[in-house]
Design a protein that fits this description.
alpha/beta, 4-stranded mixed beta sheet, binds ligand EPZ
Amino acid sequence: MNKIVIHGGNPLNGTVQVSGAKNSALPLLCATLLTGGEHRLSNIPQLRDIRTVFELLKTLGAEVDFTGDSAVINADRVESIEAPYDLVKTMRASVLVLGPLLARYGHARVSLPGGCAIGARPIDLHLKGLAAMGAEISLDHGYVEARVERLKGATIYFDMPTVGGTENLMMAATLAEGTTILENAACEPEIIDLAKALNGMGAQISGAGTDTITIEGVDTLQPMNHRVMADRIEAGTFMVAAAMTQGDVLVKDATDMQAQFMAMLTLANGTSVIAENVFENRFMHVCELQRLGSNIRIDGKQALVEGVGMLLGAPVMATDLRASASLVLAGLAADNTTEVSRIYHLDRGYERLEEKLLALGADIQRVAI
Ligand code: EPZ
């Protein structure tokens, strides 16, 4: 076993490239079992769980060529439909082969994952969903065995949003007969990434990223050609590391937090540069932050944020979801009163934000106008 030794105190400086998201790559790799042909995936992180899923794919009969961060997977000849205990026990995400195998072959045997370090996480919701789609499910010597002639579309309500369950059923439903609606589905960006890849294969999925996902079953799919999304957890970790060590780090390929970070940087020592490369019009919160006394200059796609000693409360107007959050954050740190209007943007993405902040000690309230 190794250990990491840290002598603290060095500010972090420089540029860091965020890797591909493990939790996106794992379901994407399992989705290659849905159809034959050469699947191409890039931006795959080199991690133990990824090596495990490649082992699993090979055990099932797929050919895997993994070079650098790219993989070519050929699942033309899947010879086994069984995910064995030895692989599933080391990685719970192995259960994600259940949906694709069942949808393509009408038969799958997958070892039960058992408990794990973050609690007993059952797969009952995966199984209930597949049963609602017509699968016969039995438990046999620690294995789940599922059989069906062809899965049929169904409306499935998850008792709790489950990431893996949503992914497993979304994959299974792509080849089902008719329409499947997943309600109370998990909304993680990794689910959006999987839906994008599946739609690229010819699937008909809408609503991924919301709590209701609709999948119109199709008869055939093509191989996937997809770049795995960046790992948002890793990106967030580097951002916190830079802030904690008072460093200066460019996190490449990272999270959609520009507006919130800008609010924070209005109070930082020195000048920060924020580049917005994804959306036009994503600096609309700047004028509003300026109303609170911040010092920000826009120069094309860049915003130069000169930290100020304090922000002063003022009426401001939200223009989009992230902008609303940044104005609330700035208001929390500002002197006197800030009134944020047009908060219907905020309500699209944050549930009871003001109540949660109130519980954390903020002086905040929602007022009817
Ligand atoms: C995913 O696990 C992630 N793993 C986890 O990250 C993450 O912590 C978790 O989602 C929550 O965000 C991957 O994406 C590979 P769940 P998952 O099904 O899909 C209960 C990492 O390595 N539940 O959303 O397994 C379950 O007990 C890992 O990065 C049922 O009761 O999580 C839990 O309380 C650490 N029955 C809750 O739902 C079910 O059938 C959420 O689990 C399924 C889940």
